[in-house]
């Protein structure tokens, strides 16, 4: 039997008169957008739904549901350092002044977004999730292939020349690098291979031919962790963006929330931040798109390492059908190129359940 985990005990479609994605009448479940609420630069997004939408061309309803993790119900306890260091000591010794200012600005932005969301939105903070593959529903092929998706399955170094020879120019290049992460290495799952140090990841990223495959008016969007050394590595005057001929335009912040809308960790915690950052850059001297502004994306996290799919959010900036590439991808997107040694990780049949004709994609069972 299939298992659906409901967020905030909500099993009906979200509706809110304050959401730009809502109408006066509640939408049918099959037409629910991944964007549950949007006002200005604040977006409430459902991660599994964004991945389901990305399997088909824009405007078409999803044909399958992705198997997800149960949404966190309560905030996590903020971990304390083993050496007993104080927050002030940690900040003085591990953060640059620029990174500290960036943290303060991010904290203010996410708090403002939370205040706006809770004052203007009354619906659920995520859609009901399919937490186990459903028995008796149509079987999926071994690997799910979205329409128009292209992929290079293998390491960056091994497939670099193939990419240079075959790939076009892109108006968007998204990167989710395997930044050094001690906790990920300790898990030893074999599914999430991180770099061992900053020097290794810098060499790997420098080998990606971004400059030659980015359109003149294109954007680069890179996910980073909250370590100040990583921010400096990417954005400093001799950093990665500069080596690609890019300059930072803005940043988007993904605030991880619980199914009740609370931050996953204390916003003011020095040890663990409840957000991840997406740095958005353009070519030096190029004009930035007028619609490109800072954004706070509030979303309940899914399984480990699964990010929100960004196709729809950048569609508002670049228009429909823009050519895009995702490097270090873990799933495919219709109409995009994907490159990395885990591009098919979430495309395998075990992660998907087909939607029956006449059945709502957000119902556990359908009565015919």
UniProtKB/TrEMBL annotation:
Pfam families hit by this protein: MT-A70
GO cellular component, as recorded: nucleus
SUPFAM superfamilies: S-adenosyl-L-methionine-dependent methyltransferases
Compositionally biased intervals (Low complexity): 11-32
GO molecular function, one term: nucleic acid binding
Region feature Disordered, mapped onto this chain: 1-32, 54-82
Segments of skewed composition (Polar residues): 1-10
Any GO BP annotation: methylation
Similarity comment: Belongs to the MT-A70-like family.
Protein name listed in UniProt: MT-A70 family
Provenance organism: Trichoderma asperellum (strain ATCC 204424 / CBS 433.97 / NBRC 101777)
